[in-house]
Amino acid sequence: MYDTIFSMELPVGEHIKLLRNRISNTEDIKNSSRMSIVTGIHGDEMEGQYICYELTRRIENERDKLKGVVDIYPAVNLLGLDNAIHTIPKERLDMNHIFPGSPDGSMMERVAYALIEDIAGASVCIDVHGSDIFTRESLQVRINEEFAAGLMEYAKLMPANLIWKNPCPSVAASTLVHSMNCIGVPAFTVECGVGNTINTKYGDRIVDGIFNVMKYFGIWEGEAVHHDDTPVCDDSSIDFMRADKAGLFINSMNKFGRVKKGQCIGKIIDVNKNEVVQEIIAPNDGILFTVREFPMVYEGALLARILVQEVEK
Amino acid sequence: MRQVEVFRIKSPYRDDMVVHGYTFGKGQEAACIIGSMRGTEIQQTYICSQLVKRLVELEHNGNISANKKILVIPTLNPYALNTSRKFWGVEDEDINRAFPGREMGKTNERIAKRLMDYVKDYTFGIQFASFYVDGEFMPHVRMMDTGYQNTSLANLFGLPFVVVRKPQPIDTTTLNYNWQNDMTAAFSVYSGYNETINEERAGQSVSAVLRFMTRMGILRYDCLSGYISHVINEESLTNVYAGKGGILRRLKDIGKEVKYGEPIAEVIDPFVGEVKETVIAPTDGIIFFQQREPLVNESDVIYRIVRRIHE
Ligand SMILES: [Zn+2]
After folding, report:
1. Which pairing describes strands B17-24 and B68-75: parallel, antiparallel, or unpaired?
2. Per-residue pLDDT for A313 more than 50?
3. Per the confidence metrics, is the pTM higher than 0.95?
4. In chain B, what residues touch A174 (CB-CB under 8 Å)?
5. Is the domain A2-216 a CATH 3.40.50.920 member?
6. Given an 8 Å threshold on Cβ–Cβ distance, is A242 in contact with B106?
């Protein structure tokens, strides 16, 4: 059952809403550990939708093991989701660039503000993203460099392929997780898959990780799901491979994982001349964790990311 | 006038996107003027085209000062203009959120970097910019409060207002913010329109830029002295919000004086035509910004008012 946390009237017979599904066996919310799962900030990212369902289903199966509060916010950018648009449809603004929002700003700034107010005081917050339609991502936890030290032990509970300490200086300050960390709620992002699709394998792993986090905070009494150690990296340990030429990107990699120095990741074809204009060659041994999905590329388009070394275990 | 190629982006199928600049005079790089970065900035493109036309005449008549060079770049984003997109490319990236840019970054970051490299030695940087919601402004010059800004220079455009904005984190990726340093003084000029052309306002913007360049000794040219600008901080503007969603009926126009308590807009029920809400002026003042879209959400800004000043 979803509660409406915040609502604003649209011009023609409809309201935009911020919805929350609260699952709890106690009325004493204030004195309980509380986890907030947020998704749908980007309207073309679908894994989160599956996770809302699957997480709820698994909790309901063993409801008596739930000792705290789980709050699920499934559709923060409601109109973006409904239109399969990454951004806020009308203004074309990235909703993850408007936090902490404002109580007297634009409609979506007010939604952002209402979300922050509602999460405030939670034990932990996880913002579930999928990738956009342009790149395919393996399962990653992304944490702001600034708060990395405090977040690492929670991030390691997720069975991810990678934990990425991501500085992104200008943009990071306007994200949900940054705003939450600033008010003392440990928050991180998970990222996986490709836009407008659901990869249930990633979805199930994220839900496993969410149960591990719940267990850590005493919200769940079930068993933790064991997983291998996750490599940790920052920008300096990643090869970013970008298109030098415009054309059609043809991917040679059918899966993520180990690549050898010199291995071909893909090529760019000039569609007018029918020739290969760029071969994308791994410059180092490493682990491929991002690859271009959308074939049409301009100079600068991201084609692949390869983890070359870990910064710590 | 000399046409120069600022940079070029190749496409799989389309004609290359060639960004052209037009230079006037020779020598010290005095003023660089930039038009549209978004495909919705049609008025901005138009203003630059009219400025180029005027500068051709002025150069012909020997009105460009010795050892002064002017560069005008009417648009950085012809592709978006041609396809009615707001941002750049299929990935829909805003060029004006990519500064200072990176040589090996995303396409929009590369565009930003190439532009910055090309224009970095100019003493004055002027950009015709737009706001993210479609609305109409009083003509003004906008500066970021970076610590380097000089509002007395902004006054020399002779537009009615100078607005100083305290930068938010996201502003640090705009051209204006990155241009504004101890070497370049950066100004954004808002003519008040985007997707429609307003000839009068375009003419006013062209005159403002010519006036500024005359006062800085870049042009030798007689022009009217314009307004003595009223300097305001953006946060001192009073926002007036719609309290309900519906069809907006504005009762006051941009630039007009309003009195505290006076009805200034109505929100109409889209089904039965009744007035759902009468919006009241929360202060005396002058309307500085007005929403132009006919449909409003609850909480949309309908007007922004400069408090306690009179016509
Ligand atoms: Zn996302």
Report:
1. antiparallel
2. no
3. no
4. 168-170
5. no
6. yes
